[in-house]
Amino acid sequence: MDELSDAQLKQFTSRLMPGQIATALFQALPDVIFWIKDSDGRFVYVNKAFCHDVAVMEASEIIGLKDENIFPKELAAVFQRGDEEVLRSRTPMWDKSELVSNRLGQVEWRSTSKIPLCDLGGEWVGTAGISRKMGGVGPSLVPSRHHKLAVIVEAIYEHLDKRIGVTELADAAAVSVSTLERLFKEHMNTTPRQFILQVKISAACDRLINSGLQVKEIAASLGYEEHANFTRAFTKVMGMSPRSYQRYYS
Description:
Blueprint: H1 6-14, H2 20-27, E1 32-38, E2 43-46, H3 48-53, H4 73-89, E3 93-101, E4 107-118, E5 124-133, H5 147-158, H6 166-173, H7 177-188, H8 192-210, H9 215-221, H10 227-238, H11 242-249
Antiparallel strand pairs: 1-2, 1-5, 3-4, 4-5
Helix pairs in contact: 5-6, 8-10, 8-11
C-alpha cells in the first residue's frame, strides 16, 4: 500500500479551492444544520437545512442577521453566550446535547458542536457550528432488545403527572441505581434524571401550544407542585420561560 507523506497531504490540500468541500457537502445533508458567523455574531453562511429550520426560502434572507433577529430573544441569548465562550476561550465545543424547538414549536433533541475560526493572519474572526438531530424524545429511542429499559421508559411516559424518582425506577426494574444509570448512558447517552426532564419538557412544549391550559395548570399536570420549580426547569432546558414559549409559538 502506497502511503501519503505529510508533505504530499499538505501539497494536495493546498491546491484545493478554499471552502468548496465543506459548503458543498453540508448543503447535501438535510438533517444537519450548518452555519458560520463573524465575531459580531452575524451569519455569513448557512446551509439549506438551516433555512428550512427557520422557514425561509433563501440563505440571502439570513446573511447579515444575528440570532436575535431570527429566534426568540431568550433563546438567541443562549446561542450568543455559547458563541462568545467558544471565541473567548478559543476552544471548540463538541457534541453538546440540547433540547431545541423548531419553527413550529415542536421540540427536537440535537447534538451541537461549535469551533472558533481564525484568519490567515492568526486573528480570531468568528465561529462555525453544526447541529444534528438525534431523534425525538419518545419510547421509540429505546433499543427493542433491552426489555427492562423499554419498560422503564414506558412507565415514565405513563406517569408524567407524578414526581418520578430514579430510585423508584430502579426498584421497579429490579436493578440498582448504578445499573439503571449505566443502561441509560449506554443506550440513550443520557442519565435517567435528565431523560425524565426531557420527557416532561417535551410534553410541556406540546401542551403550551395545543392544550389551551394555563402555565400553572400545565405544571401541575406534569407533577410539579410548585409553579416556580416548573418555570425554572423549563427555562433551563429551553432557554426561555414557559409563558414566552407559549406567546412565541401560539
